[in-house]
Amino acid sequence: MAKAPALFRLILQVDDLDRASEFYAKLLDDPGRRIPRASRHYIDCGPVIVALVDVAAGGEEAKPNPDYIYFAVGDLERFHARATDLDCLSEEDVHGVSAAEIVVRPWGERSFYVRDPWGNRLCFVDEQTLFTGR
After folding, report:
1. Containing H/E element for 22?
2. 58 falls in which pLDDT band (50, 70, 90)?
3. pLDDT of 66-95, one tens digit each?
4. Is 22 a member of any domain?
5. Do 96 and 124 fall within a single domain?
6. Which residues constitute the domain of residue 68?
7. In what order do the strands lie in the sheet with 103-104?
8. Contact yes or no for 102/110 (Cβ under 8 A)
9. pTM for this one?
């Protein structure tokens, strides 16, 4: 059987790279690194790089990703506290329950949801409860 390709980078469009790198440094507790001459800021998230890309530098409007990006974390409460401090907890419901609250979802994951200032939707999941379909 052929080996599946490996995902190595995921792009989040922003319109203010300094503001975005500061926001994500606080949320993810990692300052990441600026990519010179590229209007990018990279944050290593396991084997995948989250790339903040300032599309406004090229005259475009930042567009949010169409669906959630999921992060597995060891200390869900700590991430929730930082998201609360950043005032970015989701105002949506997930299966009739607040997305902003740490709860066990119907598929067994303990999680909460966030929306960044550019409309990108994120979910933080307790790494001990990941549902991988296996």
Report:
1. helix 17-28
2. confident
3. 999 999 999 999 999 999 999 999 999 999
4. yes
5. yes
6. 64-134
7. 69-73, 121-126, 110-115, 103-104
8. yes
9. 0.94
